[in-house]
Backbone:
């Protein structure tokens, strides 16, 4: 067997990140941020994801990273529960483990690199939507995977926030379109037909957000039906500009990737995280809660037609 | 009479041919010989890449053993496909993945929520799987649905049911999380010190299932009847085989095995996910691929347990190697390429075999 | 006639063909003159079908040359052959079950206007063709899958005749046709030869050759022996040439025990197909059931065996009322059946000989129910292979590599795992060569002698007379007549085709 | 003279008119489907008043178009007793190549269409060559090529999305640009393709040969039909229609194309074909049925959403629809075969 600190790599710290799936702008942007960090911090950044958001395929990749004896292994789990035992296995092999983007709360991970809280994100979505809708009217949600924990948490926050603060607004339907833009668009069309008074649609994930906007555009209902969603800037830019989407709520994904890589290095070096710190000139005021071991990048970022062109992913 | 006169010189001439010819014939006619050779080639290539430092991690016994964890559901579902494909008349089961999802929820509730205890929960889950299989079997054997269509329909239905009864939420209570120990790697008693730890599922699920299927096919009259009706349905009926009941049984067994895989999947993922068997490309297509690669004739009546097991080993170890050989996203992409090439290559070889040597085993 | 004055229509020389290790034909020669019927005879597996498949372009030869009207040709596909005017009726009907009879007949050479099929023109031609082969007009639009096997064979013949044939190949067309249908076929053949068409005619019914053939080529072991004028031959002579030895007619006297019947049918009905069938068969007795195709004779066998459930009447088995839910139930009672269509109903093609035999009674394979004891299986199978004289190196050979006669013996062996109390044989020697036929007949005699009641259902007149103690003739779903062993072929045929309506006491 | 035949002769009495020589224009299955769809639409019209409005029906028809279009090719393939499970992955390859080319060069509509169709046909050619000349069961080949196409598609995507896809294909889209006189272009094109395919299968000699091949490939060969080129053709046609459908899919998507495009479409297409009464065993089938099958499936999933029922239910109904549709077909065939 090889030495404790690496099989293929010699000397430099290796940080591996396993996204939920490869090839979507969101995780590729995290990858870009991670690569940038690797250059600046002098570490080795490994990125490998499954072709579909599949827990089993992801597990195979995690196993191969354990085998590669990376220094830090960071995962955005498709299924938090199933990732927990694998993370334990990695830790037993002497690897520092963390999660990013999506947590595995019941696991041995040493840090969760969180973009923003579910509370904040959900609230930003509902506030953007209510602002566009003028605080009243019927709205619907097009979600993606039926089983995605974070999406389901956002839904709860939106429901509660609207009930508490916008009595005239009403959630009339909730549908699931998978990670399929065309299906999201078709379902949004059906929703607008079923509810002629529909005033707002939330496209919850990065596939649904442009899908619902496209549906509004196709139906010629720009200005009558307002959409918000969790889309990436470049995919949302055309819709933000033509008004079929009012706002895209996300965070600076490249910075999240950068922070993920940086955190990986800190873990590998055995350093203790401060409760609040700056990473570099652009990533400032990161919070860390030692009790829950959660890092927080900052408040969500709301893209509108005015700022969307600043982000190239 | 004439036939033997024609055949005997052939047998004699075969005896005279050299070792090379016989080896080639064996490789081409015996699918397991081909699979064995391919597995050895994969291992050899990977190990030499490994020693040349071309891999990003070491391709060693520990890794191979750890990779076996994904062999458990794959091979078991391959065995499920073996049963139904053998039964002939276009036998196939597209619904196995959906049954895994549905039965996983059944297990999640019975073990994780209602606390019925492991034994009862396993029985209940297996029974649920068998019931799903019985629906397929009834449609195929008694109503006369083409299997592809019956199982496509039940694929949609079971998949939908799993989401509905679970309320789209994975079941992951403490019991379920602790159940992961059932999938963990263990040391083999007595001789284990010098060997890598093997995933427990191999012993608790895969080997018993494989042994059971082997015995069923090779040592029981049910197996005989299954081969008979897969080879020639009409002749089987004339020979007094109850083709409907026996064909239905094949689907029931396929469902039963899928139910067991559901338990494996719950253990492996430490949660009962309503999309366990259908997320991504699902579990059915890889299982059918394994069956075909393992030499099961899609037309029925030909297939062996050893072929399934070897094909699984080949695919699992090849995939594990590819992940180490290609860094980044290419890794998982090249797995697709490898599977496609293997499948088409093996089928083309089959074809050559038929031309050159007649029957295939 | 070997020195024919005209150029031969077809001259095949030095043709060889191997299937893997099997040498199907070796250096075969065949010369056929225009305007003649050239019979091709030989034992099962002699290579007749393979030779004509090469001419039809369905198989490619390994060696050899083919001349057509004196000019060398290469035939690499059926399209090539069809272009030369080679039309073929294959041994197995080659039809499309979901297409209508008209489409089946015109498929591959539709009458077209542009790319479109000219349905009207085809409709006009089809009537003539149906008249010629004697099928009713209303069948023109019926899907072929709805027809009986014999009707399908007639459609195949119509299909071949409809093409502008210069050579017509008929591979055992008569095997599944009734005598009436055969005489229609012969008149068609004669009309074609009168127009100068060369006809190659393959048959195991040697007697009919004297009615239709001009010359006969005998094949043995994949080789063509010689070609003879039909005038120079007799049935015995042909049979001797085929097997390469002298055939001795041996009729073993059967002792008939007059005891309680094994099976009695009382007024059995089966929908429209059977009405009021009465029969009895006793231990040791061989009862022949003769009927033309479609007469219901096959349905009697199927009803006894439980494949079909009677809609009226009573069956008594060993004196007790019997209801057979299916073949499995029949087998448990000791009733077994050799099905008529060997390849479709009898053979598990790529499985071993052992498998093909033991499937008949799996319960015998181990004292433990549901279990298979391989050693015991081997012993049982080897014993049967020896008893029936199946020619094979070992029991693991796939049955697909065997000749028709040997495969038939394997199917019969399947029924003898435990000595049956009642054995039903449907067309036991169809498509089986003379030598094997002999052996199978002897075997049936032996079984009867050991106390088995035997019911032989056949459309082979000679066979039914030769082996039966009694013959029942079935016509239009009823027993038309009963004969003792002294009956003549003429008596039976007359009864079957409707000339005799009164029941003749035996 | 043929008295002995009488007890066995099926079909109606009397000499058929030439008209009856023609293959049936509309099959029983199609009539059943038209009935079911009509009932469903009326029912949905009552339950959710918006269902029978153009705003609801037109997007439904647009969504039907790609499935029905690929379904036409799949019907050809299945009639010859083949199957093509690679169409989902093939859509992905066609779509990504076309989208990338449009982004890079801004080519206009017709060249973009031809490119997509060409790529699709090429993929179909690969399938067809392997199936027709490799003599391997189609399901195995196309499982294999599905993996290969997916590999090619993912490599082309290069772990990224295609951003800023121009609106070249908007004429096939769900929006205003996609309609003339209220009729969606994509659906109109699909109707034309279905009509041509219907005529071809019913009247052209080579169309009839496809049924012959599916009924009995060996007999077709012996009858002098060039089986291999025809089988090859069905896969190439499927590929070309996949290429066209890929354009529709791009048009129905957003300005970003991601690698989930086409995934899992093969099952939806096969479902539409079998609901439409095409026998998976070959030899029997109709493209009109396929179109109706696709409409039925889309009606079910739209209906479920518009009724406000949980969207997970729609798969359950699709499963039930397959069983009901194919079940009635099986029972009808069986009763016809019984004299
Ligand atoms: N496709 C095949 N593959 C392997 N062997 C074959 C094949 N076809 C024929 N044979 C073998 O070739 C030999 C000649 O067969 P063929 O069918 O020509 O005989 P035949 O004279 O027509 O017999 P029959 O009277 O039974 O029809 C036989 O030994 C047969 O087993
Ligand atoms: N009543 C009839 N009497 C004689 N011939 C007819 C009659 N009806 C049709 N035909 C012939 O049958 C053939 C097929 O008819 P037709 O041209 O109407 O078919 P089609 O238009 O292609 O199909 P469809 O009947 O489905 O519209 C034609 O060649 C026509 O001449
Ligand atoms: Mg023959
Ligand atoms: Mg007309």
Residues:
């Amino acid at each position: 067997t090889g030495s404790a600190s690496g099989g293929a790599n010699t000397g430099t710290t290796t940080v591996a990140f396993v996204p939920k799936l490869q090839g979507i702008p969101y995780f590729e942007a995290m990858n870009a941020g991670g690569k940038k960090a690797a250059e600046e911090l002098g570490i080795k950044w490994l990125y490998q994801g499954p072709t579909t958001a599949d827990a089993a395929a992801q597990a195979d990749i995690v196993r191969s990273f354990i085998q590669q004896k990376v220094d830090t292994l960071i995962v955005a789990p498709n299924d938090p529960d199933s990732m927990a035992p694998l993370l334990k296995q990695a830790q037993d092999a002497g690897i520092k483990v963390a999660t990013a983007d999506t947590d595995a709360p019941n696991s041995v991970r040493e840090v969760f690199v969180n973009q923003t809280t579910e509370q904040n994100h959900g609230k930003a979505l509902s506030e953007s939507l209510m602002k566009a809708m003028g605080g009243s009217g019927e709205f619907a949600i097009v979600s993606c995977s039926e089983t995605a924990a974070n999406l389901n948490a956002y839904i709860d926050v939106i429901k509660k926030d609207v009930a508490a603060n916008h009595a005239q607004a009403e959630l009339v339907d909730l549908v699931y379109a998978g990670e399929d833009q065309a299906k999201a668009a078709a379902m949004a069309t059906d929703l607008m037909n079923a509810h002629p008074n529909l005033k707002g649609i939330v496209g919850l994930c990065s596939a649904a957000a442009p899908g619902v906007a496209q549906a509004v555009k196709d139906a010629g209902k720009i200005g009558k039906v307002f959409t918000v969603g969790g889309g990436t800037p470049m995919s949302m830019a055309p819709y933000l500009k033509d008004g079929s989407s009012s706002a895209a709520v996300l965070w600076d994904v490249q910075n999240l990737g950068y922070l993920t890589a940086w955190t990986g290095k800190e873990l590998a070096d055995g350093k203790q995280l401060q409760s609040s710190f700056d990473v570099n000139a652009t990533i400032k005021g990161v919070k860390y809660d030692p009790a829950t071991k959660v890092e927080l990048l900052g408040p969500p970022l709301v893209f509108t037609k005015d700022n969307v062109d600043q982000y190239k992913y | 009479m004439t036939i033997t006169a024609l055949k005997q010189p052939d047998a004699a001439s075969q005896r005279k041919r050299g070792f090379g010819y016989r080896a080639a014939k064996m490789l081409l006619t015996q699918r397991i010989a081909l699979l064995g050779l391919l597995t050895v080639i994969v291992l050899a290539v990977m190990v030499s890449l490994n020693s040349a430092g071309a891999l990003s991690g070491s391709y060693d016994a520990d890794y191979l053993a750890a990779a076996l964890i994904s062999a458990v559901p794959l091979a078991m579902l391959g065995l499920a496909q073996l049963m139904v494909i053998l039964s002939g008349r276009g036998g196939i089961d597209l619904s196995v993945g959906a049954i895994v999802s549905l039965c996983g929820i059944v297990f999640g509730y019975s073990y994780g929520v209602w606390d019925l205890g492991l034994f009862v929960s396993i029985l209940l889950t297996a029974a649920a799987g068998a019931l799903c299989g019985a629906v397929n079997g009834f449609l195929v054997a008694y109503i006369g649905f083409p299997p592809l269509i019956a199982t496509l329909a039940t694929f949609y239905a079971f998949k939908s049911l799993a989401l509905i009864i679970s309320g789209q939420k994975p079941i992951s209570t403490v019991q379920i999380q602790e159940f992961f120990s059932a999938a963990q790697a263990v040391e083999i008693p007595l001789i284990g010190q010098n060997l890598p730890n093997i995933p427990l599922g191999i012993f608790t699920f895969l080997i018993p299932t494989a042994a059971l299927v082997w015995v069923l096919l090779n040592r029981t009259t049910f197996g005989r009847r299954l081969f008979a009706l897969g080879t020639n349905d009409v002749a089987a009926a004339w020979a007094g085989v109850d083709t409907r009941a026996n064909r239905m049984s094949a689907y029931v067994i396929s469902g039963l095995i899928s139910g067991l895989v559901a338990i494996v999947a719950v253990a492996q993922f430490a949660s009962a996910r309503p999309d366990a068997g259908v997320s991504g490309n699902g579990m059915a297509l890889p299982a059918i691929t394994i069956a075909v690669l393992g030499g099961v004739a899609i037309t029925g009546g030909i297939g062996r347990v050893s072929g399934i097991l070897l094909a699984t080993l080949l695919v699992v170890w090849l995939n594990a190697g590819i992940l180490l050989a290609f860094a980044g996203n290419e890794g998982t992409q090249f797995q697709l390429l490898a599977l496609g090439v293997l499948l088409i290559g093996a089928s083309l070889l089959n074809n050559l075999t038929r031309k050159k040597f007649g029957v295939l085993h | 006639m070997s020195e024919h004055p005209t150029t031969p229509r077809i001259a095949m020389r030095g043709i060889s063909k191997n299937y893997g290790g099997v040498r199907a034909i070796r250096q075969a020669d065949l010369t056929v003159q225009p305007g003649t019927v050239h019979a091709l005879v030989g034992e099962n597996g002699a290579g007749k079908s393979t030779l004509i498949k090469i001419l039809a372009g369905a198989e490619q030869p390994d060696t050899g040359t083919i001349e057509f009207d004196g000019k060398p040709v290469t035939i690499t596909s059926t399209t090539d052959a069809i272009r030369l005017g080679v039309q073929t009726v294959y041994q197995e009907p080659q039809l499309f079950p979901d297409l209508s009879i008209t489409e089946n007949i015109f498929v591959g050479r539709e009458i077209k206007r542009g790319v479109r099929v000219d349905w009207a023109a085809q409709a006009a031609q089809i009537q003539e063709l149906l008249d010629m082969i004697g099928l009713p007009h209303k069948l023109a639009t019926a899907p072929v899958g709805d027809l009986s096997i014999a009707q399908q064979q007639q459609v195949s013949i119509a299909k071949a005749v409809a093409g502008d044939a210069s050579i017509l190949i008929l591979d055992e067309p008569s095997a599944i046709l009734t005598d009436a249908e055969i005489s229609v076929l012969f008149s068609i053949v004669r009309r074609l030869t009168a127009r100068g068409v060369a006809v190659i005619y393959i048959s195991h019914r040697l007697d009919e050759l004297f009615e239709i053939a001009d010359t006969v080529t005998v094949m043995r072991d994949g080789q063509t022996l010689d070609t003879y004028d039909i005038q120079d031959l007799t049935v015995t002579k042909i049979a001797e040439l085929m097997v390469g030895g002298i055939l001795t007619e041996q009729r073993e006297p059967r002792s008939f025990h007059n005891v309680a019947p094994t099976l009695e049918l009382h007024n059995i009905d089966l929908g429209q197909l059977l009405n009021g069938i009465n029969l009895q068969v006793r231990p040791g007795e061989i009862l022949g059931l003769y009927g033309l195709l479609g007469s219901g004779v096959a349905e009697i066998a199927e009803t006894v065996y439980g494949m079909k459930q009677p809609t009226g009447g009573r069956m008594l088995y060993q004196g007790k009322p019997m209801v057979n839910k299916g073949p499995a139930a029949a087998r448990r009672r000791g009733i077994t059946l050799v099905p008529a269509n060997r390849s479709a109903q009898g053979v598990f093609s790529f499985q071993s000989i052992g498998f093909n035999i033991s499937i008949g009674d799996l319960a015998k394979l181990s004292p433990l129910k549901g279990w298979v004891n391989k050693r015991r299986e081997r012993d049982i199978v080897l014993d049967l292979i020896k008893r029936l004289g199946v020619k094979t190196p070992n029991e693991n050979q796939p049955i697909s590599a065997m000749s028709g006669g040997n495969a038939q013996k394997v199917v019969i062996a399947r029924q003898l795992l435990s000595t049956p109390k009642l054995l039903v044989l449907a067309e036991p020697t169809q498509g089986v060569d003379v030598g094997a036929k002999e052996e199978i007949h002897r075997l049936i005699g032996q079984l009867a002698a050991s106390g088995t009641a035997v019911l032989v259902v056949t459309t082979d007149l000679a066979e039914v007379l030769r082996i039966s103690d009694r013959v029942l003739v079935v016509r239009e779903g009823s027993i038309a007549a009963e004969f003792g062993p002294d009956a003549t072929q003429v008596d039976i045929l007359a009864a079957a085709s409707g000339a005799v309506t009164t029941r003749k006491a035996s | 003279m043929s008295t002995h035949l009488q007890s066995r002769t099926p079909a109606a009495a009397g000499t058929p008119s030439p008209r009856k020589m023609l293959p049936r224009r509309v099959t029983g299955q199609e009539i059943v489907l038209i009935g079911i769809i009509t009932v469903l639409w009326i029912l949905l019209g009552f339950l959710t008043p918006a269902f029978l409005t153009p705003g609801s029906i037109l997007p439904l028809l647009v969504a039907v178009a790609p499935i029905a279009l690929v379904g036409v090719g799949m019907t050809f393939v299945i009639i010859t007793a083949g199957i093509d499970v690679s169409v989902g992955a093939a859509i992905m390859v066609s779509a990504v190549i076309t989208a990338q080319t449009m982004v890079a060069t801004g080519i206009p509509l017709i060249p973009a269409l031809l490119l997509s169709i060409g790529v699709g046909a090429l993929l179909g050619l690969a399938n067809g060559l392997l199936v027709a000349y490799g003599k391997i069961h189609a399901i195995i080949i196309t499982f294999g090529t599905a993996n290969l196409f997916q590999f090619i598609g993912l490599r082309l995507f290069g772990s990224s999305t295609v951003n800023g896809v121009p609106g070249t294909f908007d004429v096939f889209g769900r929006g205003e640009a996609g309609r003339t006189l209220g009729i969606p272009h994509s659906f109109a094109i699909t109707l034309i393709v279905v009509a041509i395919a219907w005529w071809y299968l019913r009247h052209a000699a080579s169309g009839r040969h496809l049924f012959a091949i599916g009924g009995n490939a060996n007999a077709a060969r012996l009858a002098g039909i060039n089986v291999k080129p025809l089988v090859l053709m069905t896969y190439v046609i499927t590929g070309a229609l996949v290429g066209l459908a890929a354009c529709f899919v791009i048009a129905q998507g957003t300005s970003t194309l991601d690698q989930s495009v086409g995934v899992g479409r093969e099952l939806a297409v096969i479902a539409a074909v079998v609901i439409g009464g095409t026998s998976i065993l070959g030899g029997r089938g109709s493209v009109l049925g396929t179109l109706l099958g696709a409409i039925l499936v889309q009606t079910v999933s739209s209906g479920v959403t518009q009724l406000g029922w949980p969207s997970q239910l729609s798969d359950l109904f699709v499963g039930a629809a397959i069983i009901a549709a194919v079940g009635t077909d099986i029972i009808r065939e069986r009763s016809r075969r019984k004299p």
About this structure: Residues 179-194 of chain C form the longest helix (16 residues). Residues 1 and 131 of chain C are 35 Å apart (CA to CA).
